[in-house]
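TASK: fixed-backbone design
INPUT:
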């Protein structure tokens, strides 16, 4: 099902997509897309300059009136065709996603691509269900109506861990609601965002509705957020950069949507199904080589199960197959880059002074040494306030800590700045019910960890940001609510005028 193609040839004209066509960036600086499994540069392109951002915003602004004025049915038809074209391109999209990210092909082909196609199909349907509250007479003399209107040009910024899905999450609800978009993918992973935009054009979505600027964060990203022609900034990435985006958006009084970092707890109560918890923890920690904002990163295990859980996780991690991302048998690919691998190794190396590295904690030797690989890593004995428990590592590293009472387990789960996702493992519905109420996170799974759905919202609490991706809730982000009030009396002198004219009414 995977379809290889020549990336250099496909994007020979450049990695900017403006008003329905590819073009070169004008910054004068070259950026390479690197295959992290081999270190080979697979594509080079010129980054977007601030002038390229201006041109993209201009294209989106020109496309806005007609797209916002299209009926929901017309936008829905276009999105249905978009879903179909994306489905037809599935093999190429999976190839490009694995090439630029080093993702195992089974993850790209079974998760990233079908998830994005399903998102397009969901928003094709949802486009026809934009709702306001009921119209009516909330005073006897007036009829009130709610209009839910698009906002304008949306400036979206995405990270490198799931480039295609992040493009889908940012773009689809925005255009379904009648906005137009300038999307800035992470500069190291532009390929599937460009293919996503090409598919939109092929599906008949008008030129300018979706534009891509492949540029550096500090230059193109900041310029996009600050741009007076951009009505809203929608950002997914780290909490540190999210704060910077929020500062710029605030200073230009823009709406914003921030999907930021995570440090998801995985709470195992002493009546949990141990086998399920062990498998769930390893899969939840290692998906996408741990470069997942909802990855299971901190497992809290109630004392009676602690030793068996640690042993089970160590044994299972040892069976995970690292290898060529394009080998269907590969479970774990390289990290996105050598820089990211060294960052992850830094966290683990510093932890050796205060914790125990039970398994992993090293770069694999032999053939894999040339790629940005890192062994699945299990750490125990770390204190709750230590760096590996509190900071987002974004690599294949799971930290396990014991707890005694249910109160303690839940308190520890809540004890980081983040609040994106969490899971609770128990056979007792009252324990899991309590955990779902008391854990402060945008998603709490019960006896599972990771699955997502187009119909359900994804978004953070606390330092993980605010706003929702996917689901009908994302329309709240990409629409503004207008109150329209009709006078029903037809009189020149309204009752309330007395407050101004007194006796003279
Ligand atoms: P990052 O914050 O470094 O970069 C994200 C994007 O912001 C990139 O496109 C980058 O070029 C751009 N950027 C960098 N500096 C900028 C600036 N000053 N102004 C404007 N834009 C700028 O994040 P990353 O390393 O690409 O991705 C990993 C992070 O993303 C992790 O923290 C992860 O948790 C987070 N993430 C969150 C979610 C979520 O839904 N909450 C989903 C995926 C990833």
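OUTPUT:
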């Amino acid at each position: 099902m995977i379809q290889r193609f020549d990336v250099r040839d496909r994007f020979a004209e450049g990695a900017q997509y403006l008003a329905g066509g590819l073009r070169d960036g004008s910054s004068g600086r070259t950026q390479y897309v690197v295959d992290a499994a081999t270190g080979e540069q697979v594509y080079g392109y010129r980054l977007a300059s601030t002038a390229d951002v201006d041109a993209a915003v201009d294209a989106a602004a020109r496309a806005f009136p007609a797209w916002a004025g299209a009926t929901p049915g017309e936008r829905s038809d276009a999105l249905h065709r978009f879903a179909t074209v994306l489905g037809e391109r599935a093999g190429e999209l999976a190839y490009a996603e694995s090439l630029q990210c080093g993702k195992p092909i089974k993850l790209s082909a079974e998760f990233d691509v079908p998830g994005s196609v399903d998102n397009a199909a969901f928003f094709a349907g949802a486009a026809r269900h934009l709702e306001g509250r009921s119209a009516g007479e909330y005073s006897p003399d007036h009829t009130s109506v709610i209009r839910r209107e698009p906002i304008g040009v949306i400036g979206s910024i995405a990270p490198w861990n799931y480039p295609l899905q992040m493009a889908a999450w940012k773009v689809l609800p925005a255009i379904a609601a009648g906005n137009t978009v300038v999307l800035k993918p992470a500069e190291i992973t532009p390929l599937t965002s460009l293919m996503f935009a090409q598919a939109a054009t092929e599906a008949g979505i008008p030129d300018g509705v979706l534009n891509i600027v492949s540029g550096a964060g500090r230059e193109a990203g900041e310029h996009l957020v600050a741009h007076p022609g951009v009505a809203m900034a929608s950002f997914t990435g780290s909490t540190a950069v999210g704060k910077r985006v929020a500062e710029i958006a605030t200073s230009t009084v823009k709406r914003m949507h921030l999907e930021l970092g995570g440090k998801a707890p995985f709470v195992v109560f002493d009546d949990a199904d141990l086998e399920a918890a062990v498998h769930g923890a390893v899969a939840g920690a290692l998906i996408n080589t741990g470069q997942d904002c909802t990855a299971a990163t901190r497992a809290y295990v109630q004392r009676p199960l602690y030793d068996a859980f640690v042993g089970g996780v160590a044994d299972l991690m040892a069976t995970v197959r690292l290898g060529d991302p394009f080998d269907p048998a590969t479970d774990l690919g390289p990290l996105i880059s050598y820089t990211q691998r060294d960052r992850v190794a830094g966290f683990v190396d510093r932890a050796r002074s205060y914790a125990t590295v039970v398994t992993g904690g090293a770069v694999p030797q032999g053939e894999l040494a040339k790629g940005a690989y890192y062994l699945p890593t299990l750490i125990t004995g770390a204190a709750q306030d230590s760096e590996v428990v509190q900071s987002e590592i974004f690599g294949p590293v799971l930290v396990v800590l014991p707890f005694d009472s249910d109160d303690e387990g839940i308190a520890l789960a809540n004890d980081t700045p983040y609040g994106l996702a969490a899971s609770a493992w128990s056979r007792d519905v009252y324990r899991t019910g309590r955990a779902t109420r008391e854990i402060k996170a945008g998603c709490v799974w019960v006896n599972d960890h990771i699955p997502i759905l187009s119909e359900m919202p994804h978004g953070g609490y606390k330092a993980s940001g605010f706003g929702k991706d996917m689901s009908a809730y994302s329309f709240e982000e990409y629409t503004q609510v207008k109150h329209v009030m009709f006078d029903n009396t037809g009189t020149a002198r309204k009752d309330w005028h007395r407050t101004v004219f007194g006796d003279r009414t």
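COMMENT: The radius of gyration is 25 Å.
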